[in-house]
Structures are given as C-alpha cells and as structure tokens.
C-alpha cells in the first residue's frame, strides 16, 4: 500500500510539474524535464510534510492542491537559486 501511495505522489507530481509551468510563466532553467522532476520532488515533499505533521488527506482534491503547492514552491525556489548562480 505504501508503494502505491508513493507512486501516486510521483505521478501527481509529474502532472503538477507540467501544470506549474503555466502557473509560473517564463523561462525555467533546464526546460520541461527539470520542471517535471522538481514537480515530483515538490509533490513528494508536500505529501511527506503533511504526513509528518499529522495532516490527514482524505479528499483527492486536497492531494492535488498539496502537490500543486509543493511543486510551485520548489519550482519558484529552483528558479531563484539558478538565477542567483548565473549572475
């Protein structure tokens, strides 16, 4: 069951990573592949932090929202870090 949950967060992160490109318009260093990988990491991180905090996620829309939030935050942080490095 735990493996299915992690796989679900990965797939959700992949989709949300793609969607985050529309939420955060502009050029992302690394292109679509990096954005999707950061989206996966954001979704997994969001799921892990919610579980560690004892937040119970019963609704699929809550999972989408949490994954989207984690992906957008990590993509924004990634852009900031890469922009600083290229200066």
From TrEMBL:
CC per GO annotation: plasma membrane
Entry keyword set: Cell membrane, Membrane, Transmembrane, Transmembrane helix
Highest taxon listed in the record's lineage: Bacteria
Membrane topology: Multi-pass membrane protein
Ranges annotated as spanning the membrane: 6-24, 31-52, 64-82
Location of the protein in the cell: Cell membrane
Main location: membrane
Entry similarity comment: Belongs to the UPF0410 family.
Listed name of the protein: GlsB/YeaQ/YmgE family stress response membrane protein
Organism of this sequence: Stakelama marina
Lineage: Bacteria, Pseudomonadati, Pseudomonadota, Alphaproteobacteria, Sphingomonadales
């Amino acid at each position: 069951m735990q493996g299915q949950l992690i796989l679900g967060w990965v797939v959700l992160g992949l989709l949300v990573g793609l969607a985050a490109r529309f939420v955060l318009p502009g050029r992302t260093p690394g292109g679509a592949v990096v954005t999707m990988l950061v989206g996966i990491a954001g979704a997994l991180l969001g799921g892990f932090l919610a579980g560690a905090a004892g937040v119970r996620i019963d609704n699929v829309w809550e999972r989408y929202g949490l994954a989207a939030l984690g992906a957008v935050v990590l993509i924004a942080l990634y852009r900031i870090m890469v922009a600083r490095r290229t200066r």
